[in-house]
Amino acid sequence: MLAPAGWSSQEGTLARPLQLSGHGLHTGRRVNVRIVPGNADSPRGIVFRRMEGGRVLAELAVSPALWRGQPLCTMLETVDGVRVRTIEHLLASLLTCEIDRATVELDAEEVPILDGSAQPWIEAIHACGRIELPAAKRFIRVLQAVKIVDGEGTRDERSISIEPSSTYEMAVRNELKGFGELRWDGAVTPESFAGQIAPSRSYGRVKWAIPAILAGYVRGMPILRGARLSCTAAIVGNRVLGGMRVPDEFVRHRVLDLVGDMAMAGAPLLGRVNAVRPSHEMNYKLIARLLATRDAWEWAEFTA
User: Fold this and answer.
1) Of 81, 140, 173, 241, which residue is 20 to 30 A from 5 by alpha carbon distance?
2) CA distance 274 to 161
3) Which residue of the set 23, 26, 126, 280 is catalytic?
4) What sign results for the dihedral spanned by CA atoms 59, 106, 245, 227?
5) Any binding-site annotation on 23?
6) In this structure, are residues 277 and 173 in contact, taking their beta carbons and an 8 Å threshold?
7) Rounded distance, CA 301 to CA 134, Å?
8) What pairing do the DSSP bridges indicate for beta strands 101-106 and 45-52?
9) What is the mean pLDDT of residues 165-194?
10) Is 89 annotated as a binding residue?
11) Closest CA to 125 of 12, 230, 229
C-alpha cells in the first residue's frame, strides 16, 4: 500500500544544519537556533537541546508527557524545570516538511517567533533540503474516535475530536467578534500546509495585549513581551493593521497551531480532526487522550 497522497513513504532529515535567530514572543529574549540533522542511528522524532554558555542544560524529546500548561503557547518542561516554549510553529514546519529526525539546539528557553507565522521555517527548511533515511516513515492511524469538550452547554463551549480517516484532515471553526465565523476544512499535506496555512500569523487585539503584558510583569510570568507589529496580526476594532496576509488568516493560524500541537505525537496522523475554537490546552488533551487510549490507534508504515 502506498503512503497517503502528498507524503513520502521514507523518513527524512535535513540535508545540512539550519540556523536562525530571532526573539521570543513571550520572553522577548534574543535566541539562536541550530537544527542538527539526524541519521539512521538517531532516535526517532524531534529532540530539543537547551544550551547555555556552550554546555547542554537538558535534552527534551517531544512528547505529551513533558507538556506543561502555559498561556498562549505550547511548552515542554523537564522535572528539573528546564523549559522550551512556543514550539508549535517549528514542530508544525518540521512535521509537514517531513523532517522526521533532528535535534533543535537553542540558547534560550523560547523558540523565536520570527514573523509570527511558520513561513520562515518552511523557507529555511526547504533551503537546507531534505534527504531520505533508510527507515520507513511511520504514521499514527486513528482507529477509534476520541473527543474533548470544554464548557459543555455554555456559550463558551469548545470542542475537539479526532476520528478515523485514510488521510490527515482537519476541519476547524473559529469565531471572532467583528469578523464572524471562520472555517478551514481540508487535507493536511506538505503542499497544503506550505501554501495555505504556513503564511498565517499569530494574532490578537491590541486592547487585550497591553493588560496581558502588564499582568505578566506583576505575576512574574512573561507574556507577549516580544509582541510587535512585525510578528503579529494586530487587531484594532474590526480591522487588522496592514491587512490580512491570507484569507481567513485567524482560523488558518488555529490550524497551524493545531498541526504543531498534534506533532507532539511524534508522527503525522491518519485521522480527521474536528475543532471548534481550539486552544493549546485542548489540543494537548486530545493528543494525550488518544495516545493513552491504546486501542484507539496503531502505527502504520507504507511501501514506496
Assistant:
1) 173
2) 5
3) 280
4) positive
5) no
6) yes
7) 13
8) parallel
9) 96
10) yes
11) 12
